[in-house]
Amino acid sequence: MRPALLRPLRRLSPGRPYTTTKPPSPTPAPATPPDTSTRTRLNKLLDRTPKFLHPYTNGLRNAPVSHIISFLILHELTAIIPLIGLSAAFHYSEWTPEWMRERGEEYEGRFRRYFGRKGWFGVEAVGDGGVAASGVDGVAEGEGMKAEGGGGGVRIVMEVATAYAVTKVLLPVRIVGSVWATPWFARVVVGRFKRLGGLGR
Questions:
Q1: Residue 17 domain-assigned?
Q2: pLDDT above 50 for 162
Q3: 136 and 151 in contact (C-beta within 8 Å)?
Q4: What angle do CA 121, 126, 127 make, to 5 degrees?
Q5: Structural domain of 75
Q6: How many domains in the chain?
Q7: pLDDT tens digit string along 107-126?
């Protein structure tokens, strides 16, 4: 028999079983819901709120994502706006409430270190242990100087720390106000951006 005639037989010889079944593809890992991190952040925030506010905030835990994002935005705005506004009011009026100044001293070191790293308001970092605040005329003030006796940098640090303390005291009011305004904010502001990120799902 000629070799040319044997070639078709060789091709049909059972060397490897022929099958049309495709190997099973690996099962894809379940996708993480896009709102998991947002809800986690919300839950951490709500867990730190006073217990008497829980009746107002518990409904947010199962709220739509648009409402959760609206609440978080409002919560940040109600912290930033009073902090800036009160700091400016204390600075230009040259007055800070005595009953809040002592509480503001608890946060003074935090703002001293932050302003020192940034080099804002003449506050300069001098090392790991503290900062030196330069006054308006460039004279360095000591670490323990207070707003009423220190230079411009020291005074601003104390004013911002006091404004921050007032903002912390107003936390219950901020929470209730944010919850109250959340539906409106979600409908009017966040609702316009639903198509961009699918926030309404």
A1: no
A2: yes
A3: yes
A4: 130
A5: 64-95+171-201
A6: 2
A7: 888 888 888 888 887 777 65
* 163 and 116 part of one domain: yes
**166, 189, 167, 154: which is closest to 73 by C-alpha?**
189
Residues 78 and 117 in one domain: no
pLDDT digits (tens, 9 = 90+) for 9-62: 455 445 555 455 555 555 554 444 556 888 888 888 888 888 888 888 888 888
Cβ neighbours, 10 Å, residue 14 = 6
The rounded distance, in Å, linking the Cα atoms of 71 and 63 is 10
On whether both 198 and 113 belong to a single domain, the answer is no
Other Cβ atoms less than 10 A from the Cβ of 79: the count is 17
Per-residue DSSP letters for 120-138?
Answer: GGGEEE-SSS-EEEE-TTS
CA gap 182, 156 in Å, rounded: 33
Whether 182 and 191 have beta carbons less than 8 Å apart is answered as no
Locate 80 and state its tokens.
Answer: 């930033």
What's the distance, CA 79 to chain centroid? 11
Task: Provide the pLDDT for residue 39.
Answer: 86
Domain contains 42: no
Residue 55, domain member (yes or no): no
Burial of 171 (0-12, 13-18, 19+ CB in 10 A): middle
**pTM assigned to the model:** 0.66
Tally of CB atoms within 10 A around 110: 13
